[in-house]
Task: structure prediction
Amino acid sequence: NRQWILRKRPQGEIAPGDLEFTEAPIRPLEDGEVLVRNIYLSLDPTNRIWMSDQDQYLPPVEIGEVMRGGTIGVVEASRSDRYKGGEIVNAGLSGWQSYTIAQGASLSPVPVIPGVPLTAFMSVLGATGLTAWFGMMDIGRPQPGETVVVSAAAGAVGSIAGQIAKLKGARVIGIAGGPDKCRWLTDELGFDGAIDYKNEDVGAALDRLCPNGVDVDFENVGGKIMNQVVSRMNNFGRVSLCGMISTYNAEGPVPGLDDFAAILMKRLTIKGFIIIDYLPRAGEAFAELAPWVMGGQLKWKAHVVEGLENAATAVQRLFTGDHDGKLLIRVSAE
Ligand code: NDP
Result:
C-alpha cells in the first residue's frame, strides 16, 4: 500500500520532508471489513490545518500517521455483507494512500448517474457542493436583488457558491486571482462582476461594483480581503465564514476583523461553519444541486493531477492558485 506519512509539522508552507512517501503491506481483512482501492483523492486547503497542531475542528494528524484526506474508490475485496467487489464507494477520510481497509458500515455507496462523471462526486456533488450550498443557503441566505461577494470565487467552493446566489436572484461579485479566472466568472458563470485581487485595488473595485454595499460575504480567504468586504457590509448583512486560506500557512495567531464594532453597529451575523456538521442534512442540498448539475445550470471543473506520488507537491497549488477547479489526485484508474 503506497502511503503519505506526516513526518514533521510544516513551518509556513509545506516543505520537502514534512511528508514521506512510503510503502506498507496490506493486511488480511477481518469480518465486516472492506478493502477499497482508492481512485480519487481530494486535496483541500484544510489539509494544511490538519498537518498543524493548532486548535481545530478535528484532532490533528499525528506525526507518523497516514495523512488524512477524502477518497472515492472501488471495492476490491469484502468481508462485509453490505458491499461486494466492483462497487464504487465514498471511503470518507480514508487518507493519502492507494488502499483503505474500512468497516463496511463506515462506507457509503456512490450513485451511478448516466452522464455525471465520478469526479462530480468529489466536487459539485460532494463535500465541495455541500459546503457551497449550506454556507450560502443556511447562513448567507441571499434575497433577490441583494449584493453577494464571494472570495476565492473561481475556486471549487467559491465558484459554486456564487452560482447558487445567482440562481437565487442575487447580484454576485467574485474576487479571484488573475484575468483568466475573472473572465471565467463573468463570461461563463454569469457573475455580475469580478475583481482580480492580484492586479487591482480590491477596496476601490468593491466601491465601484457594489455601489449599494454588500449584503452577504461568502468568505473563503480571510485577512485583508475579508476586511475590505466586511467594511462595506450593509445593516443586517451576513458573513458566511467558510474558510481563511490566506492564513493557513501563518505561524501563530492571525489578525481578525479591523472593525469589530461594525458587528454591533450594523447588526451583522458572522457565522463560521464546517461542512461535517451539516452532513446529516445533505439530502436538502442534493435536492437542489443534482437537478442544477444535470440541467447544466450549475457549472463546475475538476483539476486532476495524475499519481499519488504527486500529492505533496500538488497540494501547494491551492495556495498559489495554480489549478483550475476542484483539485484531485487520480490515485488509480476508474
Ligand atoms: P479552491 O479551489 O478555492 O482553492 C483555493 C484558492 O484560494 C486558490 O485557488 C486561490 O485562488 C485562493 N487563495 C489561496 N491563497 C490565497 C491568498 N493568500 N489570498 C487570496 N486568495 C488565495 O479550494 P476550496 O474550494 O477547496 O476551498 C476554498 C475555501 O473554502 C478554503 O478557505 C477552504 O478552507 C474552505 N472550505 C471550507 C469548508 C468548510 O467546511 N467550512 C469545506 C471546504 C472548503 P486564486 O487563484 O483566485 O488566488
Observations:
- The longest strand covers residues 33-42.
